[in-house]
Write a structure and sequence with these properties.
The protein is an alpha/beta fold. The protein is 28% helix and 29% strand. Strands 1-7-6-2-5-4-3 form a seven-stranded mixed sheet. A hairpin with a 5-residue loop joins strand 3 and strand 4 (74-78). Helix 1 (11-22) packs across helix 2 (41-51). The two termini are 17 Å apart.
């Protein structure tokens, strides 16, 4: 595991980071997003999807998993409202379907996450500033982070 820390001074910088990371995407990529409400998780997910040519990604109130078709399939999971029936959702199956999986509120399903993944924690500093801590588990994720951050 390697850890990277970056400060975002506005929403545009978060969007740019997501777009840059999208350019490093690969089949079965899993990105786990952590942070309080309003910290930028959905902004990141939407920007990543936009860069894939996918529009209309939002934070879902009712659908826990939404599937989108783009350059690669995108599986957007918002598990904020997940209950004890996590196993019935088949979340782990999505990690091997050849697409990119982005999970908001990933801490709520930590026991189901793959070993190799990218964790991004959004820490709110003030109204516009966020510190993002990226933890890359696995060579592909470390390489992707190094390519976009250096």
């Amino acid at each position: 595991m390697e850890e990277f820390k970056i400060t975002m001074h506005n929403e545009e910088e978060t969007i740019e980071l997501a777009q840059n990371l999208e350019s490093e995407k690969f089949p079965n990529m899993v990105i786990c997003l952590y942070g309080e409400l309003g910290s930028g998780k959905t902004v990141f997910a939407k920007a990543f999807a936009d860069a894939m040519g996918i529009e209309g990604v939002t934070s879902s109130t009712f659908n826990i998993i939404k599937e989108y078709n783009g350059e690669l399939p995108l599986y957007h999971m918002d598990v904020y409202r997940v209950d004890d029936n996590v196993e019935s959702l088949g979340i782990e199956e999505y990690f091997e379907k050849g697409g990119v999986t982005i999970i908001e509120w990933a801490d709520l399903i930590k026991d189901y996450l793959p070993e190799e993944r990218l964790d991004i924690k959004f820490k709110v500093i003030d109204e516009t500033t966020r510190v993002l801590v990226l933890k890359a588990y696995g060579d592909d994720y470390i390489r992707a982070c190094e390519d976009i951050l250096w």
